[in-house]
């Protein structure tokens, strides 16, 4: 296994884990009783909000519905697909 393949595999795994964290963050946002200052939720918020804020600055909430997570997940899935193709091309 060469260095490029190892890097692509590591990045692909990171993107997959980050996608799961994003889904958990988005699902938890549906519950108004979640205190985002409590330790497990604050860590999740600190990990995912900087990435989500990139898309929130581009797409404002429309009618109280935030569509930016959809775009954020879509971009992450494209990145994961690209990394998978890179892995398949190297192997």
Characterise the protein shown here.
By secondary structure, the chain is mostly helical. The chain has one domain (3-90). It contains three helices and no strands. The protein has helices spanning 3-28, 39-58, 68-90. α1 packs across α2 (39-58), α1 (3-28) runs antiparallel to α3 and α2 crosses α3 (68-90). The chain is elongated, with a radius of gyration of 16 Å. The model has no long low-confidence stretch (mean pLDDT 86).
Distance between the termini: 9 Å
The percent range for helix content is: over 70%
Please tell me the overall pLDDT. Answer: 86
Uncertain ranges? none
Radius of gyration: 16 Å
Q: Choose one word for the global shape.
A: elongated
The count of domains is: 1
Major beta sheet summary: none
Number of strands: 0
Q: What structural class do the secondary elements suggest?
A: mainly alpha
Looking at how many chains there are and whether they match, the oligomeric state comes to: single chain
Order of helices and strands: HHH
Number of helices: 3
SSE inventory with pairings:
Layout: H1 3-28, H2 39-58, H3 68-90
Q: Could you give a quick summary of the protein structure above?
A:
It contains three helices and no strands.
Descriptors for this entry?
single chain, 91 residues, mainly alpha
